[in-house]
């Protein structure tokens, strides 16, 4: 495949911030299969797949909606949404964590940020899924690729209409307000803004959906860890970081060499692709002792679940907050929570994204005369502070062994 695969923590973290490696995903649109070109053209305008000077310019615009203070204002909305979902499911004794909770919650919050009307959200969700699948899967057939391209076309048309909808002005302090403000700037490319609205919608809920699914599955497979969190809720910030590290929602980042360069003692030629395997870096024993053990008191280094360097995930604080609130609710409000052994887990078909697409669980519903474990969540739920989120442990990361292989 003419690519290099980087797996060690030291080399992955270094390469992720190396300006000699480009983040541009599709430098030659004509080389992309015809049915995927409409999607590729949009990806090429998104900040995730851009370099300086475009990337810092776009990031500075969007980051205003993801400051710790801005994210903290969403806490009450997240608590309300989680409480509604858990209360609805509690009486049934079973739920699909993905369909009932992990997918609708992040979509609700990112749509709130984008100021998307309630009635429009199902359409955005239906467009998002084939796009996310195509981004991380090179083996889809032509029909699935066409569906992804058409979904992106439809999504952009929707955002174009939303940004020019004068009968309903945008709510203040929303991404729609920021983007609408910029759209009125004659120096700003509207198509570029639309492409990044699509990025925020897809990345803003797909990754958090997979994080919640992965984290829930890990806790149910390790009941001692779940019990530890119930007994010691103060461990939740460390648990969130460990769960992100243990099974990250994003497993892979792609870079392309701008020119010949040395990477961990290997010569990477100009134009060659470097695959940065974040999932492997997060299991590097040189940084994370006993990496295959789920340990909420681990002394270790910084995980790569949110990337590293200039492209570090803008929504990291929001994902952490949503994850902490969800996990606390599941552990404290659904007694007897366990995997439904009659329903197999189903997984996302993607190299980039990792997470279950179905995760059935059962639990003990409240009896008619005793509301056991289903009390509403207090508004102060979850001590996970957005502005002071810390990584697991306090020990500095030790250099990894390299971990670069040709392929």
UniProtKB/TrEMBL annotation:
InterPro entries: Cyt_P450, Cyt_P450_B, Cyt_P450_CS, Cyt_P450_sf. It comes from the Bacteria. GO terms for molecular function: heme binding; iron ion binding; monooxygenase activity; oxidoreductase activity, acting on paired donors, with incorporation or reduction of molecular oxygen. Transmembrane segments: none annotated. Keywords: Heme, Iron, Metal-binding, Monooxygenase, Oxidoreductase. Residues 363-386 are annotated as: Disordered. Residues 373-385 have a biased composition (Polar residues). Signal peptide: none annotated. Belongs to the cytochrome P450 family. This is Cytochrome P450. It comes from Streptomyces sp. R28.
């Amino acid at each position: 495949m003419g690519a290099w695969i980087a797996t060690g923590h030291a080399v992955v973290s270094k390469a992720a911030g190396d300006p000699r490696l480009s983040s541009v995903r599709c430098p030659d649109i004509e080389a992309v299969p015809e049915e995927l070109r409409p999607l590729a053209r949009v990806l090429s305008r998104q900040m995730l797949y851009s370099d300086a000077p475009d990337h810092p310019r776009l990031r500075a615009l969007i980051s205003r909606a993801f400051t710790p203070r801005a994210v903290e204002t969403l806490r009450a909305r997240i608590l309300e949404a989680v409480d509604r979902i858990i209360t609805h499911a509690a009486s049934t004794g079973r739920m699909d964590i993905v369909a009932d909770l992990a997918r609708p919650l992040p979509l609700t919050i990112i749509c709130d940020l984008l100021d998307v009307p309630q009635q429009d959200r199902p359409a955005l969700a239906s467009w998002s899924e084939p796009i996310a699948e195509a981004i991380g899967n090179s083996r889809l057939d032509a029909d699935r690729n066409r569906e992804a391209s058409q979904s992106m076309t439809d999504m952009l048309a929707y955002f174009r209409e939303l940004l020019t909808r004068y009968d309903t002005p945008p709510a203040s302090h929303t991404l729609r307000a920021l983007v609408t403000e910029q759209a009125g700037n004659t120096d700003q490319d509207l198509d570029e803004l639309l492409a990044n609205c699509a990025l925020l919608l897809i990345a803003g809920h797909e990754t958090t959906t997979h994080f919640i699914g992965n984290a829930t599955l890990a806790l149910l497979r390790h009941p001692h860890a779940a019990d530890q969190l119930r007994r010691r809720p103060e461990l939740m910030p460390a648990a969130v970081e460990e769960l992100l590290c243990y099974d990250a929602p994003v497993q892979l980042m792609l870079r392309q060499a701008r020119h010949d360069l040395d990477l961990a003692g290997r010569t990477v030629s100009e134009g060659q692709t470097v695959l940065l395997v974040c999932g492997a870096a997060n299991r590097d024993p040189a940084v994370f002792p006993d990496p295959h053990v789920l340990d909420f008191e681990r002394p270790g280094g910084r995980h790569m679940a949110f990337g590293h360097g200039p492209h570090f995930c803008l929504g990291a604080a929001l994902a952490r907050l949503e994850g902490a609130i969800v996990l606390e609710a599941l552990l404290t409000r659904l007694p007897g929570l366990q995997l439904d052994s009659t329903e197999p887990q189903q997984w996302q078909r993607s190299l980039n994204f990792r997470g279950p697409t179905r995760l059935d669980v059962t639990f003990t519903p409240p009896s008619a005369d005793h509301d056991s474990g289903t009390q509403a969540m207090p508004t102060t739920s979850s001590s996970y502070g957005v502005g002071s989120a810390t990584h697991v442990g306090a020990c500095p990361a030790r250099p990894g062994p390299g971990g670069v292989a040709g392929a």
